[in-house]
Amino acid sequence: MEQPPDTTTNLFDHLSKELLYTILDHLNDDPFARKSLSQSCKSFHALEATHRTSLKPRRLEFLLPKTLHRYRSISHLDLTLCPCVDDATLKSLSLAWHSSLRSIDLSKSRLFSHVGLSALAVNCTCLVEIDLSNRPDLTDLAAKAIAEAVNLERLCLGRCKGITDLGIGCVAVRCSRLRHVGLRWCIRVTDFGVGLIAIKCKEIRSLDLSYLPITEKCLHHILQLEHLEDLVLEHCLGIEDHGLATLQASCKSMKMLNLSKCQNIGHIGIASLTSGAHNLEKLILSSSLSVTTDLAKCLQSFPRLRSVKLDSCLGTKSGLKAIGNLGASLKELNLSKCVGVTDENLPFLVQTHKDLEKLDITCCHTITHASISSLTNSCLRITSLRMESCSLVSREGFLFIGRCQLLEELDVTDTEIDDQGLQSISRCTKLSCLKLGICLMITDDGLKHIASSCSKLKHLDLYRSSRITDEGIVAAALGCPSLEVVNIAYNNNITDTSLESFSKCQKLELLKSEGALVFHQRVSQILLPSVSISRCWT
Predict the structure, then answer these.
(1) Which candidate, 384, 369, 356, 258, places its Cα nearest to that of 311?
(2) Residue 478's domain spans which residues?
(3) Could you tell me which residue ranges the F-box/LRR-repeat protein 15-like leucin rich repeat domain spans (predicted)?
(4) Which of 51, 400, 531, 538 fits as disulfide partner to 527, beta carbons 3.0 to 4.6 Å?
(5) pTM greater than the 0.70 cutoff
(6) What angle do CA 34, 17, 28 make, to 5 degrees?
(7) Is residue 447 part of a domain?
(8) Confidence at residue 497, expressed as pLDDT on a 0 to 100 scale
């Protein structure tokens, strides 16, 4: 008698590990799918453990000891949700992952000292990246411990206010392979320490010196770095025009320069800093100098310039118009809170820079629908438009936005947009972020237009848009299943009915509902456990 075929055989047993790992790679964007797979059977549970290389535990007790035993090949460890990491924890994980750990983020951890850092640096010989930001109590002893990680390539010490030139010197001497260094708010580091970094670490690509008490003395060494691409000098008030004028060095590799809040630097200093930097692509001058024709002439030297940020600057009419005459074709322009932006110069700017992809005109209170019409006629490739509090743009102005069908991000917070405007915007089917906070003219009808066409929407902000009710929210939740962040704060017309509709959004991560008439107990019953919920009325 013929035996029936064995139906208990697992067909996945015939697949190679490499093929199974490829399947797991395709599940990285969906943590629920990955978790479901690992829980389906013992073999998949073991397979997921050997395949995982990154870890972000929600609580410290999840990390020890079972996690250390289960996951043997962790290379990237994010501990930003674990503020209680201490020396013992660092020692344990450094022993468990001594041959695999390459990157660790300790920027939100508070209890470890130089002892734990020393164990980490000595045991994890493959460590190339460490983030120790927001630890003002760390001293030069911690910097000396870090220096034992001789293969380090990326180091972030933001707000480590206790570290001085001595500690930075230890790092510079031993960690010669450093490529990315962040010293933001390390206010005890001076020209001497920065100079040592520049002299000893020749491979540096990115350097953040924001808020340091440095002068132009250390810039001579910095500009001689052959591979330097990104230089951030935000709020370095010790650097002035007259000192920069004597600089002889030039950095041909520089691609990004951030001089925001450097109020003692003008167009002369910028010209000195960027001498020979023909590869410059991004220039950030936020809250610094006035936008004049002299500045525009300086920018003519950069044929590859693609991004300029002039937010919170004082712009002259002639200066802003001269920006339109740049030889380079800009892709990103930030004029947020820039005094002097008008219907006279903005249309000229967008007509000459037709390849613009990102434009920020937040709080440009003097522009009208004429500028929006010119913008949407000229810049059809635009993907991001921020125009919060453009108070003189009438309802008709928002009808033009529908022309920009590649738009992915739109911020019209605190404007006169109405349902007809939303109907026009619904033609932008690639929208992923839409901010409609304090838009008092929009109703459920307008939101339904968005819901019916913008299925890729991930971020929806309806903060204080008081005419939106459950009807509009339900339509948005059903039409936009990819929603990840929703803000319905201070909207008295939204109830538990809206929450029930959000239960269909499997990717929802954050729901902001302060001041909304929803009940916290119902929230926990309806939504997924992974959803973060801001405070509700109870």
Answers:
(1) 258
(2) 394-538
(3) 69-265, 330-475
(4) 531
(5) yes
(6) 25
(7) yes
(8) 86
